[in-house]
Amino acid sequence: MSRIDSLVCTGAKKTNYRFVVLAIIFSVYAINYADRTNIGAVLPFIIQEFHINNFEAGAIASMFFLGYAVSQIPAGFFIAKRGTRGLVALSIFGFSAFTWLMGTVSSVFGLKLVRLGLGLSEGPCPVGLASTINNWFPAKEKATATGVYIAATMFAPIIVPPLAVWIAMTWGWRWVFYSFAIPGIAIAVIWYLFVKSRPAESGFVSEGELSVINADTNEQQQVRENICRDAKFTTLDKIIRVRKLAPISTVKGLFTSKNILGDCLAYFMMVSVLYGLLTWIPLYLVKEKGFDFMRMGLVASMPCIGGFVGAIGGGFISDKLLGRRRKPTMIFTAISTVIMMIIMLNIPQNTLAVCTGLFFVGLCLNIGWPAFTAYGMAVSDSKTYPIASSIINSGGNLGGFVSPMVAGFLLDATGSFNSVFIYFGTCAAIGLIIILTLDEAQ
């Protein structure tokens, strides 16, 4: 009988405050994503007002990711030493302030500069949220909790396009940013008051819940040793290269690990696809498919509806059905994304077909999304994970810096979104090759 089972059997009082923390994490990241992705729905209005080409429009969106990537590794070192509470609260307040400032600028240069500031201020947030999950959840719940956290990235863009378009058409595009800034101020206060860096520091967590959270830490080595013993996974484990890996415990080990760096590079490729799509799908629907702005706002949310389902389902599959194996869902995401890009190249001029295609693009992309984050938890220890997470996120999100500009350049050069979907499919194919070289932690 495991320690968790014995605690339940002896009737130890056990709270479940970690799930309240998870709900706050979900809310924080949903607001975070709303503030970064509203630019996609607003770009057609900005292009019209400032008379810029697609490359310039892509550069406005891309500047966020430059700042986002730059600030994550310093944030990882800070969190490893000082914890998540204060820095995450400051990050939320900061990106809310920069969101407000987006509505005040009157030049393309100003838009780029504020988007850079938005990225710098948002950078510490995902490192802090992922580290909070790593601290607050036992190993058997980490990928599921990560799936819920990642699902927030798709929940926000479900409501962002129609809401942003409605605000822009009613009051002007600047009011999109004024309106979106407000919720972040409130959630920053909630975070600081109710989420401590570690569960042991929280007055809302009972000894019983602490024992549940920490029991897996004591049993984790046995779990690692048992991961390969299920006969039904024998063939799969050969394909995904299961290896006995000691958790990386040094900073130098993280920066020289082929698995951490490989996960980072694969994530770069998949982020290139995701943020390229989130940036350009609204314009694709208007220019290529002839949708009016209001209908575009509704249809543009379809990849995110599929992504929401995929992120939660992918975390559950990785934890519960695949025995905490991370690579299978990552491989599925890369292969299915290549297939979906081919389908998008040939999608008919039909609203139902476009909606269905975009839904499955989001679904396929996000089934493996939680695994890129959870993979870092498996190959590092609890002390080095904040830095591991920052490396993966920082390098990976440079894809969000490169991709919108490359897609804009291709649009200017060819005048067709076919070249953009070919580019996205190529990124996913390269990502697949890299994923196949990673070791699955035993």
Could you walk me through the main structural features you see in this protein, from its secondary elements to its overall organization?
With 442 residues, this protein is mainly alpha-helical. It contains 19 helices and two strands. The protein has helices at 3-9, 17-50, 54-82, 85-102, 108-122, 124-136, 142-171, 174-194, 207-226, 234-239, 251-256, 258-288, 293-299, 302-321, 327-345, 351-367, 369-379, 385-414, 418-437; strands at residues 242-243, 440-441. A two-stranded parallel ribbon has the order 1-2. Helix 6 (124-136) packs antiparallel against helix 7 (142-171), helix 12 (258-288) runs antiparallel to helix 13 and helix 15 (327-345) runs antiparallel to helix 16 (351-367). The longest helix has 34 residues, at 17-50. It is globular. The protein starts with a helix and ends with a strand. Residues 1-11 and 219-228 have low confidence and may be disordered.
Helical stretch count? 19
- By DSSP, the count of extended strands is 2
Strand order of the largest sheet: 1-2
- Overall 3D shape: globular
SSE string, helices as H and strands as E: HHHHHHHHHHEHHHHHHHHHE
Distance from first to last alpha carbon: 22 Å
The biggest beta sheet reads: 2 strands, parallel
The pLDDT mean sits at 85
Any low-confidence stretches, pLDDT <50, length ≥5? Answer: 1-11, 219-228
Content-based structural category: mainly alpha
What would you report as the Rg, rounded to the nearest angstrom? 21 Å
Helix content: over 70%
Which range does the strand content fall in? under 5%
